[in-house]
Design a protein that fits this description.
alpha+beta, 25% helix, six-stranded antiparallel sheet, Thiol Ester Dehydrase, Chain A, 151 residues, 34% strand, two-stranded antiparallel sheet
Length: 151
């Protein structure tokens, strides 16, 4: 499957999802520390002229999804949905915003084990959203529910 290609209702690149395409989320280069980004543009601004909170949340969610794809594969045979998102806005964001993500030590192995034995798992991904100045402008913890696809 080519990068960004749709296979049924599965995607191998979160930037190819219809909503993410619509708002302009871009996959970061493979050698980058970031997973996804949103380019600088006036239509992402809020009433203060900084990046809108909704845009930052979208980047964080897409970044966590990209982290899952990177570490667990494209999800063939599984259904993944966000169960919970908790965020903290740290400072106003300017320009391009990008997401990097991580999970606690051992989490990926635990998720794989739970999927194998139980057919479902919860996976918490921590995300930093960084603006073009290098400042962490938002942090988020995003919990995903992953289960065998029964369709």
């Amino acid at each position: 499957m080519a990068h960004g290609e749709v296979k049924g209702d599965r995607y191998d690149d979160v930037a190819a999802l219809p909503f993410n395409r619509f708002i302009g989320i871009e996959a970061s280069p493979p050698d980058s520390d970031f997973l996804v980004s949103l380019p600088a543009a006036p239509h992402y601004a809020n009433h203060l002229g900084t990046v809108h909170a909704g845009a930052l949340l979208a980047v964080a969610e897409a970044g966590s999804g990209a982290f899952i794809l990177k570490h667990l594969g494209n999800g063939d045979g599984y259904l993944t949905v966000v169960r919970r998102l908790q965020s903290k806005f740290r400072k106003p964001a300017v320009g391009r915003v990008s997401a990097r993500a991580d999970a606690r030590t051992g989490a990926i192995a635990d998720v794989r084990s739970d999927l194998q034995t139980k057919g479902r798992a919860l996976f918490s991904v921590s995300v930093d959203v960084v603006d073009e100045t290098g400042a962490v402008v938002m942090t988020a913890d995003i919990e995903w529910f992953i289960s065998r696809d029964k369709s």
